[in-house]
């Protein structure tokens, strides 16, 4: 997701360290202290403008959520969504970091579930390593999830979905649920992301899968 440069974004982000955690490596292994409870922790890598993670946090107050996003100009929109909520969203935090460094921020087993939504497809084969479902990323996710931890993935991009099915199954994960048209019979628990809303309005099918790591 590209967004116009917002010169004011860094200042707004800096003014809200209670929401966008400034040095998350310092709280590695201590996220329960940050949230003040021992509820499960679900994270989204590539959270964009936050429609999904904010919706999930509001729908499931007994689950803690963290949205991870690379860019100031994008994550600031997620921050604004949180600030619009009266009383804030106590079970949600945001990290302006790269998902490839996820091990620096979470201990083994500290994350109970990982969401990937409409990840950048990187269609050229030479960029395959950048796809968030590449084997290298799966290995990273495995280090922060518990045994049998799950990844839930949605996309409108058929090529990325096909690639991900192969990458995930070659990794030895168990595919638990696969949908080739999520909106044909949309589950009541589905929270749409910004991209999902945009592409489904155009009539494009939304692909979804749940995959579980397997103990060796
Ligand atoms: C195509 S957008 C989708 C945004 C949102 N998930 C949605 O569905 O509307 C992908 C987002 O992932 C972010 N992103 C890509 N690679 C990332 C990485 N390695 N770490 C963190 N965020 C990343 C991009 O900056 C972008 O905002």
UniProtKB/TrEMBL annotation:
Q: Which residues bind substrate?
A: 124, 156, 193-196
Entry EC number(s): 2.1.1.33
Q: What pathway does the annotation place this protein in?
A: tRNA modification; N(7)-methylguanine-tRNA biosynthesis
Name the chemical reaction catalysed here.
guanosine(46) in tRNA + S-adenosyl-L-methionine = N(7)-methylguanosine(46) in tRNA + S-adenosyl-L-homocysteine
Cross-referenced InterPro entries = SAM-dependent_MTases_sf (IPR029063), tRNA_(Gua-N-7)_MeTrfase_Trmb (IPR003358), tRNA_methyltr_TrmB_bact (IPR055361)
**Top enzyme class of this protein?**
transferase
Question: GO cellular-component terms in the record?
Answer: tRNA methyltransferase complex
Question: What GO annotations for molecular function exist for this entry?
Answer: tRNA (guanine(46)-N7)-methyltransferase activity
Q: Which UniProt keywords apply?
A: Methyltransferase, S-adenosyl-L-methionine, Transferase, tRNA processing
Q: A Pfam family matched by this chain, by name?
A: Methyltransf_4
Q: Which PANTHER family match?
A: 3-DEOXY-D-MANNO-OCTULOSONIC-ACID TRANSFERASE/TRNA GUANINE-N 7 - -METHYLTRANSFERASE (PTHR23417), PENTACOTRIPEPTIDE-REPEAT REGION OF PRORP DOMAIN-CONTAINING PROTEIN (PTHR23417:SF14)
UniProt family annotation: Belongs to the class I-like SAM-binding methyltransferase superfamily. TrmB family.
Q: What is this protein called?
A: tRNA (guanine-N(7)-)-methyltransferase
Identify the species of origin.
Answer: Planomicrobium soli
